[in-house]
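Page 37, continued from 36.
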């Protein structure tokens, strides 16, 4: 990695984007080159400075003083956010490439990765400002807005779209990016509070033509994931060339499944999931219940929930989710040991593994939640009022966890 070249490129794209984009579009590059010479370093900036802010410097809260997240939890969150950032760059490049013909552009996966990579520069560099009180938030927002502007300027040069269509192209890409970010962080957050990708001795080696990671390390898993996404992207391109709409629909499902790490998975039907909601829970009678299955862009997620109450007004809620194709995100936490704990003024949050399952518990003095991940696909969570976290643990044990976990491979399509 040539650091002088990296700094020069970052400075040029930020200060002289109109003259830098033509140069970027014309220079030869590969996916591996872009990652090892630019993305791997710059994408780490927001994650590192977020850790410094959250765990070392702390956040100043009015009337509460300075609050810090524990070092272990902070490191866990840092590695998770970094890994997801590396993944999101590649996913967004696939989306930019797929949308190119719709806006009069030319499909080219490397050029798509270029425009996403260098447009992200402003946001990545602005990540340094997280340690700056008050003003830091404004700088982060400005960085995000400038990244959108950079994308708008870069699309005509890299993807060869007409300049008058660059605005619409940019808008669609940003909307999809927002939706994907919300979906990914919602799933990751639901799993383990902060999630984890902590690895025991992850390392990687760089050659002139490729990036090779230790097979069993966190980044090794990420490399395998990227190859599956790349293969799915080729399948999508072949389907588009064939003109077969059904093949294109199937390829889109494969692409989204690969991007989310779970492959193609048909989530359980609502009635199947609803069957795991017991008629009573911790001595409380079941009241309202609902179940549904939603799908978009080849992804499916099923949810079932029920509320439980007694005459004294005590309530609990049970939520069961089948993440379907997004189950690969739950696997992120299994790439390494998960250990994280955060103390609050009224209780605590803790993430750990027990009996091979990922568990997240949170206690707030008189209520809390207890969640468990089954088969790296299903999440089961009990939340509400209780005398202690042990009552919530006992309540979740009344659910047929083993029966649900046994269905973890149902609906998974193999090729």
């Amino acid at each position: 990695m040539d650091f002088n070249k990296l700094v020069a490129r970052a400075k040029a794209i930020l200060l002289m984007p109109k003259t830098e984009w033509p140069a970027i579009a014309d220079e030869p590059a590969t996916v591996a080159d872009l990652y090892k010479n630019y993305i791997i370093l710059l994408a780490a900036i927001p994650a590192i400075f977020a850790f410094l802010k959250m765990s070392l410097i702390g956040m100043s809260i009015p009337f509460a003083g300075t609050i810090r997240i524990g070092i272990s939890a902070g490191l866990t969150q840092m590695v998770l956010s970094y890994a997801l950032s590396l993944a999101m760059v590649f996913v967004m490049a696939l989306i930019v490439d797929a949308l190119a013909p719709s806006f009069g552009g030319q499909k080219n996966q490397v050029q798509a990765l270029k425009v996403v990579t260098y447009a992200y520069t402003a946001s990545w560099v602005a990540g340094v400002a997280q340690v700056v009180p008050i003003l830091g938030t404004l700088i982060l927002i400005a960085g995000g807005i400038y990244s959108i502007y950079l994308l708008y300027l870069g699309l005509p040069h890299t993807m060869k779209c007409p300049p008058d269509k660059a605005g619409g192209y940019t808008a669609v890409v940003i909307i999809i990016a927002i939706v994907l970010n919300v979906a990914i962080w919602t799933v990751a957050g639901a799993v383990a509070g902060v999630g984890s990708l902590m690895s025991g001795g992850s390392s990687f080696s760089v050659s002139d033509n490729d990036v090779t990671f230790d097979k069993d390390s966190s980044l090794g898993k990420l490399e395998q994931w990227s190859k599956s996404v790349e293969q799915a992207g080729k399948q999508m391109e072949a389907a588009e060339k064939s003109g077969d709409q059904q093949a294109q629909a199937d390829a889109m499902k494969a692409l989204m499944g690969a991007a989310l790490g779970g492959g193609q998975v048909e989530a359980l039907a609502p009635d199947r999931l609803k069957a795991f909601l017991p008629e009573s829970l911790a001595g409380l009678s079941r009241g309202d219940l609902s179940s549904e299955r939603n799908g978009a862009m080849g992804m499916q997620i099923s949810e079932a929930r029920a509320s439980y109450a007694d005459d004294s007004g005590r309530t609990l809620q049970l939520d069961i989710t089948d993440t379907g194709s997004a189950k690969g995100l739950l696997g992120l936490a299994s790439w390494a040991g998960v250990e994280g704990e955060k103390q609050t003024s009224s209780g605590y949050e803790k993430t750990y593994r027990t009996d091979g399952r990922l568990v997240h518990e949170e206690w707030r003095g008189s209520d809390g939640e207890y969640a468990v991940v089954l088969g790296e696909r299903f999440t089961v969570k009990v939340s509400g009022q209780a005398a202690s976290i042990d009552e919530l643990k006992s309540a979740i044990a009344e659910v047929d966890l083993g029966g649900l976990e046994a269905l973890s491979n149902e609906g998974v399509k193999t090729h």
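The mean pLDDT is 77. Flag for discussion at group meeting. DSSP finds 14 helices and 13 strands in the chain.
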